[in-house]
Amino acid sequence: MSVLVLALAAGAVVGLALGGLGGGGSVLAVPALIYLLGFSPVAATTASLIIVAATSASSLVAHARDGDVRWRAGLLFAAAGIGPAMLGGLAAGRIPGSALTVAFAVIAALAAWRMLRPSRPAEDRPVRPVRAAGAGAGLGAVTGVLGVGGGFLAVPALVSVVGLRMKAAVGTSLLVIVVTSLAALATRTGTADGLDWAVIAPFTGAAILGAWDGRRLAAKVSGDRLRRVFAYVLLAVAALMLLDSLI
């Protein structure tokens, strides 16, 4: 199978998951880039930031048009993550590839665990500035180091800490992801020189189109069913990455 076909297929799956679940799809981008497309761990996390930022920005437009983005809350949350995202981006180039792989496997397993937990009805809660800043900073650090958007972390944080309803949290998380991903990319110029744009461009294009299809799929299929299927895929990916790092 050609590299182009693999890039298109992987991008479509990442976009489908991101559009259908509102987060978590980008966790598949890094292992796809490493194991299917031959990227090194550092290059894969940098390329993933590009893919995540572009796909999230595209999806953000649709959510904003539907009135599901809380701009002020999202920008305040994202602002706390800009510094950690930039520091994480600087640190990523100095972390051994095997350590990045293990850390990423842990994050993928955490994402799966989040998705398998029973969802609770959203409740209005008062915003806690300190907790919101801490959650935003933690998300920024994860984004900077591992090249994931962190929607699976941002959505529950925006619900429980900022007090947004689920639909608004999904849309607002995309704004947070775009800001923190761009901040992390700003410090990764040294790792962008060897990127294969002939792979990244079709991967990104397929992810953007897949995200639009994912939104339509979410309207037809139970959200709980989608989350369970994707969670089991993530667990399998996490296990394979851990085995690979140990062998």
Describe the protein in words.
The protein has helices spanning 3-21, 29-36, 41-65, 71-92, 97-116, 129-146, 151-162, 166-186, 197-218, 223-246. With 247 residues, the protein is mainly α. Helix 1 runs parallel beside helix 9 (197-218), helix 5 runs antiparallel to helix 10 (223-246) and helix 6 packs across helix 8. The longest helix is centred in the N-terminal third of the chain and has 25 residues, at 41-65.
Ordered list of secondary-structure elements with their pairings:
Elements: H1 3-21, H2 29-36, H3 41-65, H4 71-92, H5 97-116, H6 129-146, H7 151-162, H8 166-186, H9 197-218, H10 223-246
As residue ranges, the low-confidence spans are none
Q: Mind describing the biggest β-sheet?
A: none
Structural class: mainly alpha
Q: What is the typical, i.e. mean, pLDDT?
A: 81
Number of helices: 10
Globally, the shape reads: globular
Quaternary structure classification:
single chain
Rg estimate, integer Å: 16 Å
